[in-house]
Design brief:
Blueprint: H1 2-18, H2 20-42, H3 45-48, E1 51-57, E2 66-72, H4 75-84, H5 88-94, E3 99-106, H6 115-118, H7 127-139, H8 143-154
Length: 159
């Protein structure tokens, strides 16, 4: 059965390896791996563990040159790595990378909370308390305080 599928996979491999899109992906992957290896020469292993991603970005036009972006797990790791890599662009240029600058960022972690947990449920305000706030709002001379007490007295369902 393996022999029957072999021609299909051979033509699929030939189609993928001959595709310009595949070539661009492969080149990007190899470049990323090379940058990762170069980064590992510059940083101690505990710092390497804090690196989530490394990528190169080239400007569409202009003279600024390429930039390497290193994405880390935390802002403190980003600060330490930024200091450690201060001279890294010079090293990369000596190795033939043509990199002009290094940018180190902390990954923004978004904690997506359940909608019920975003705002804690408030216990209903007892009717007696609401009446007290309403009465107090009519007796207070401060307009902002009067408005706040009035809003509280109208809030939610009465018990």
């Amino acid at each position: 059965m393996g022999g029957m599928n072999a021609p299909f996979f051979k033509t699929l491999r030939d189609a993928l390896t001959g595709s310009p899109d595949w070539a661009a992906l492969d080149r990007g992957w190899r470049e990323s791996e090379g940058l990762r290896e170069a980064l590992e020469k510059q940083l101690p292993p505990p710092m390497i563990e804090q690196v989530l991603q490394i990528r190169r970005s080239d400007p569409a036009q202009g003279i600024r040159g390429s930039q390497v972006t290193v994405v880390t797990t935390t802002a403190s790791a980003a600060a330490k790595i930024r200091l450690t890599l201060a001279d890294w662009p010079n090293e990369l240029r000596r190795e033939g990378w043509g990199i002009q600058s290094v940018r180190v960022l902390a990954q923004r972690i978004q904690d997506i909370a359940h909608p019920d947990k975003v705002r804690p449920n408030r216990a209903p305000i007892p009717a007696v308390v609401k009446q007290g706030f309403a009465q107090l709002s009519s007796e207070v001379s401060s307009e902002p305080l009067r408005a706040a007490l009035s809003r509280i007295s109208r809030r939610g369902k009465a018990l």
